[in-house]
């Protein structure tokens, strides 16, 4: 089931919360909607589900216009952050619930429901827990039950709103991997709302970056990380160093530092450099105008990378650099050492409004 959102806008009073959203989710794709708090993620999911209606635009499910259709017609399975399991029912009963309440005409037989619940318990790896009650499960297990319950009605699409948001970091990580595997098995068209970058990058086929009700970028995780299309995405995704300067005569200039840029005209500019995109060189003689002289202020070993904090000698700006262990040991760096910092990859945007 593919989904197409065309030109969706929505306001509450004078506040526009969705602004001309265009997005296609292909059949079987898992798309993550990632953005800061209040950017409109949940609102978009609710409009898609039929829990809210857009002021403008249309929604097509496999080419059929369901913009004004009620929630039931959209056949969506939901999983929310807070487990909405029924505490007085066993896990089996919880999973079977959506099937048991179907009208007689559409309700499967008792035996078929039992078999379906068996399959789902197997899928979410909770076979031994069918007769327990939700209070006898961990938070992560309860969210897996919530997913099984959502899948029981054989939805056409799966909508996940911060499904692991209430769980601790370790469980979240396990569930992310589990969700990825589960999605590979069931291949259901899915939209995952999250503000957790790691979650979006690890789980999704494509990521939609949303900000102030507008889509900033749509792409695979590597496209979004490697080629952010604007300064918002650069800043929002991963760590980044920002260096302010001037764009003039086709160059970005910051003190003695100069590099050619595509931007023409004269304006203030901001250069973005990821911490792993620096070369560190021994500070011999004068820094070329492609490097900043800097002093190492801190060295933090952080797993497979070494994080360095440096202070630029020309204007005292703090710069964060990441090196592999190998690079670090080859350079034999020590605290307080003076070095030249040369960006390997740098992206400059005009500073309008930043
Ligand atoms: N029923 C409502 N009435 C008025 N304003 C609303 C309503 N629901 C949401 N909003 C506003 O719409 C904007 C988008 O909210 P939404 O919940 O979609 O954001 P979000 O990206 O999901 O945020 P979070 O990550 O914090 O959950 C916010 O400014 C919010 O205050």
Automatic annotation (TrEMBL):
Pfam entry (one): TOBE_3
Molecular function as annotated in GO: ATP binding
Lyase listed as a keyword: no
PROSITE patterns cross-referenced by the UniProt entry: ABC_TRANSPORTER_1, ABC_TRANSPORTER_2
InterPro entries per UniProt: AAA+_ATPase, ABC_SmlMolc_Importer, ABC_transporter-like_ATP-bd, ABC_transporter-like_CS, Mo/tungstate-bd_C_term_dom, P-loop_NTPase, Sulph_transpt1, TOBE-like
Domain annotation ABC transporter: ranges: 3-237
Keywords: ATP-binding, Cell membrane, Membrane, Nucleotide-binding, Sulfate transport, Translocase, Transport
Gene3D superfamilies in the record: P-loop containing nucleotide triphosphate hydrolases (3.40.50.300)
The protein's name in its UniProt record: Sulfate/molybdate ABC transporter ATP-binding protein
């Amino acid at each position: 089931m593919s989904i197409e959102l065309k030109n969706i806008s929505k306001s509450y009073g004078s506040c526009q919360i969705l602004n001309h959203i265009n997005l296609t989710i292909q059949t079987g794709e898992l798309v993550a909607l990632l953005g800061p708090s209040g950017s409109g993620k949940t609102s978009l999911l609710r409009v898609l589900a039929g829990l809210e209606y857009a002021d403008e635009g249309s929604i097509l499910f496999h080419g059929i216009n369901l913009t004004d259709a009620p929630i039931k017609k959209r056949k969506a399975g939901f999983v929310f952050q807070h487990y909405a399991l029924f505490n007085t029912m066993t896990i089996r009963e919880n999973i079977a619930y959506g099937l048991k309440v179907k009208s007689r005409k559409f309700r499967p037989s008792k035996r078929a429901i039992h078999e379906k619940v068996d399959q789902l318990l197997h899928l979410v790896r909770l076979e031994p827990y069918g007769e327990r009650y939700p209070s006898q499960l961990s938070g992560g297990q309860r969210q897996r039950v919530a997913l099984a319950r959502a899948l029981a009605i054989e939805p056409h699409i799966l909508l996940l709103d911060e499904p692991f948001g209430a769980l601790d970091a370790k469980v979240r990580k396990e569930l992310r991997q589990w969700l990825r595997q589960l999605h590979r098995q069931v291949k259901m068209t899915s939209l995952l709302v999250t503000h957790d970058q790691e979650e979006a990058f690890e789980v999704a086929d494509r990521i939609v970056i949303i900000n102030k009700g507008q889509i900033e970028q749509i792409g695979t995780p590597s496209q979004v990380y490697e080629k952010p299309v604007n300064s918002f995405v650069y800043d929002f995704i991963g760590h980044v160093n920002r260096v302010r300067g001037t764009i003039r005569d086709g160059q970005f200039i910051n003190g003695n530092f100069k590099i050619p840029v595509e931007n023409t005209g004269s304006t203030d500019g901001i250069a973005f450099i990821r911490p792993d995109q620096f070369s560190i060189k021994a500070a011999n003689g004068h820094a070329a105008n492609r490097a900043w002289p800097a002093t190492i202020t801190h060295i933090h070993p952080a797993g497979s990378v070494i994080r360095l904090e440096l202070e630029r000698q020309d204007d005292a700006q703090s710069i964060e650099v990441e090196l592999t262990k190998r690079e670090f040991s080859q350079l034999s760096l020590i605290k307080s050492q003076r070095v030249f910092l040369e960006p390997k990859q740098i992206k400059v945007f005009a500073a309008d409004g930043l």
